[in-house]
Design brief:
16% strand, 4-stranded mixed sheet, 7-stranded mixed sheet, 15 strands, alpha/beta
């Protein structure tokens, strides 16, 4: 059917409900256009995007440099598979490695695919380099984690809604309390291949660990001869005010998983980046992806790297993030219990007695601000890094209205 035959949001939503699997519960907004920090629905109503596709749209909707890179590459070649070389791949790998201060790049598509790849690399490294007996490697992970939704990844989730009815689960993981070095220290064994964690836990409510925790993780990994894997799929590429969230702590991981913003909001692009000692264990035929590192993905990814190489977006995240957190902090005691986060990323904990997260998100949408809840009581705020101070104020004012009036 054409858009003319389905002119209203209600009709589009009904079409989705009838024909798509109900694995999401979207807000009742049908977006048809986007530009910068704003989107427009099919009836022409405009909304301020305070979610940015869970940080996939760090540079806003249809950033002209990213669109230009995609259009130029679309006119040349979009896919070769890794059976052949192409003229964008090596350049993308070099530029991304230089941006992140790493040695090698393993190009993939989705964030979950990057995490799965890092798990495979860590296990192979444990067997070939550390000498762990085959089939016994363990990876330590943090409680309240979110790394994706594949069967292996949900095997070590502590969110029952992500696990229920999806077993049997993959063995080889130990879950410890996030932020506790004592719990982590006790979990190491001679079979530990790696520690995998988020420098800022996004799905858990934008939780920043205690000062010194990430440096402590690095030290324990060094002490026990294990890899440190940082999942920077949401926290990386400018979101927290640095290229990588670990940079705030002066900590370096052996492997990083990147995604979301790496595709510029145009297509899925992900990667594992890290040391040659870790990624160098892979040999031809042992791991791959038909679309991973395709020419279109590499062209867009290179444009993302160029934007970040100027430092402008990291600076915007730091400066506007300070303003965002100051404004949200004013709401503590006025419908807000706590504000967490770093840079242009915040978890707004709704005070007891306030609306549930879903109710608050729907009320914000009616006010022209798109936000989304997590863990039922937290609003996730992650606007595009191109947002202005005035637009931030508009969004924060709407949050204040919703959490104090409950409508």
């Amino acid at each position: 059917m054409t858009a003319t035959a389905l002119p209203t949001s209600e009709q589009f939503i009904a079409l989705d409900d009838e024909w798509s699997t109900h694995n999401y519960h979207p807000l009742p907004v049908v977006i048809s256009h986007g530009e910068g920090a704003w989107v427009t629905d099919v009836e022409g109503r405009r909304y301020l995007d305070f979610l940015s596709g869970y940080s996939s749209l760090n540079f806003g909707h249809r950033h002209p440099e990213l669109v230009a890179a995609a259009v130029e590459q679309l006119g040349r070649v979009t896919l070769t598979s890794r059976a052949f070389h192409h003229d964008q791949f090596g350049l993308f790998c070099r530029e991304l490695a230089e941006l992140t201060g790493t040695d090698l790049v393993l190009a993939m598509n989705s964030g979950a695919e990057a995490v799965e790849s890092a798990i495979k690399v860590a296990r192979k490294w444990a067997y070939r380099v550390k000498g762990v007996p085959e089939g016994t490697a363990e990876i330590i992970v943090a409680g309240s984690n979110f790394h994706g939704r594949t069967t292996t990844i949900v095997s070590f989730s502590t969110d029952e809604s992500a696990r229920a009815d999806f077993g049997p689960f993959t063995p080889g993981f130990r879950v410890v309390e996030y932020g506790s070095l004592d719990a982590l220290r006790a979990a190491f064994t001679e079979r530990t291949a790696a520690v995998l964690l988020e420098p800022v836990q996004g799905e858990a409510g934008v939780v920043v660990p205690p000062a010194g925790y990430l440096a402590g993780v690095r030290a324990l990994c060094d002490e026990h001869g294990a890899l440190m894997i940082a999942d920077e799929i949401q926290s990386g590429l400018g979101r927290t005010g640095e290229v990588l969230a670990l940079d705030h702590e002066g900590v370096r991981a052996d492997l990083y998983t990147l995604g979301k913003a790496l595709g510029g909001g145009i297509l899925p692009v992900s990667a594992v980046v890290g040391s040659r000692a870790a990624l160098g264990v892979l040999r031809p035929g042992e791991h791959g992806s038909t679309f991973g590192g395709n020419p279109l993905a590499c062209a867009v990814g290179r444009a993302v790297v160029r934007l970040l190489s100027t430092g402008e977006f990291q600076r915007r995240s730091r400066e506007l993030g300070a303003h965002l957190h100051a404004r949200l902090g004013e709401l503590v005691g006025h419908g807000v219990a706590e504000v967490r986060g770093r840079g242009l990323w915040a978890g707004v904990e709704i005070a007891p007695g306030g609306p549930r997260g879903r109710e608050a998100s729907e009320a914000l949408a009616r006010r022209g601000v798109l936000c989304k809840e997590t863990r039922d009581t937290t609003l996730r705020v992650a606007p595009p890094l191109v947002i202005t101070r005035a637009e931030l104020d508009r969004g924060v004012d709407a949050i204040g209205e919703v959490l104090t009036t409950h409508r």
